[in-house]
Description:
Beta-lactamase Inhibitory Protein, Chain:B, domain 1, single chain
Amino acid sequence: MRVLAILAMVGGLAACAGPGGNSGGNFGSSLSPQTVSAPVRSAPTLKPTPSTQSLIGLDTYGLRDVFGTPEFQRNEKDAEVWRYAGEGCTLFVYLYQDESETLRTAFIEARAAAGGELPVDPCVAGVNRAHQLSAYRY
């Protein structure tokens, strides 16, 4: 008797698992797989790149607003040198204390990764762009 009960249960389960089983409706058998795509993320609108000349005289707060935190900072008496990595360049910003003892940008230079001077404006643009995109986590 026990064997018959077990066989009846197994037969019932097999009928549910087969195609067209589940007399209450087909759960999932009539659904086709669908492709779900991630939302497209458009590039953020960036502020215009400041001119190199407009950076001269900026204090440390203004400079951080344009480029963010430097990757390297060297402190000297009455002066600091901040270094930023750009796209194929390194930007060096030299800050000196003014008469009110506020550090201000006095000079900017760009150097190639392999050494040698580069035009400053493209390096400023690259560092500024990287900073803005990182603010958007892009």
